[in-house]
Amino acid sequence: MAKEVGLKEAFLEFAAKSAVLNRNGKIIKEKQQIAPYFDSQTLQNVSLDWEPEFVEDAKAGDMIYTYGPFTFSAFS
């Protein structure tokens, strides 16, 4: 989805309402703050390629995380 419609749209589609980003030591909490963060970015030609290698869910069933190799590039 990031390739097709953009990083902001893909992130907001799949991030939990309570998602948190750490960008340059600043904590950005919840989708309502994350959307304006993406709007304020001046990077152009943003590209993200990622594929999960590992998926794990919490025993309580309230959280799932994935990780895997990625390539991110952009120009300012």
Counting H and I runs of at least 4 residues, what is the number of helices?
3
What strand order characterises the main sheet?
1-2
Name the helix and strand elements from N-terminus to C-terminus, one letter apiece.
HHEEHEEEE
Distance between the termini: 22 Å
Would you identify the regions where 5 or more consecutive residues have pLDDT less than 50? none
Helix content: 25-40%
Give a quick summary of the entry:
This protein is 30% helix and 38% strand. It is built from three helices and six strands, in the order ααββαββββ. The protein has a two-stranded antiparallel ribbon with strand order 1-2. A two-stranded antiparallel ribbon has the order 3-6.
Keywords:
76 residues, alpha+beta, two-stranded antiparallel sheet, globular
Describe the structure.
The structure is a single chain. The chain is of the alpha+beta class and 76 residues long. It has one domain (2-75). The chain is built from three helices and six strands. The chain has helices at residues 2-5, 7-14, 30-40, and strands at 20-23, 26-29, 44-50, 54-57, 64-67, 70-75. The strands form three sheets. It has a two-stranded antiparallel ribbon. Strands 3-6 form a two-stranded antiparallel sheet. A hairpin with a 2-residue loop joins β1 (20-23) and β2 (26-29). The longest helix has 11 residues, at 30-40. The chain is globular.
SSE blueprint and pairings:
Elements: H1 2-5, H2 7-14, E1 20-23, E2 26-29, H3 30-40, E3 44-50, E4 54-57, E5 64-67, E6 70-75
Antiparallel strand pairs: 1-2, 3-6, 4-5
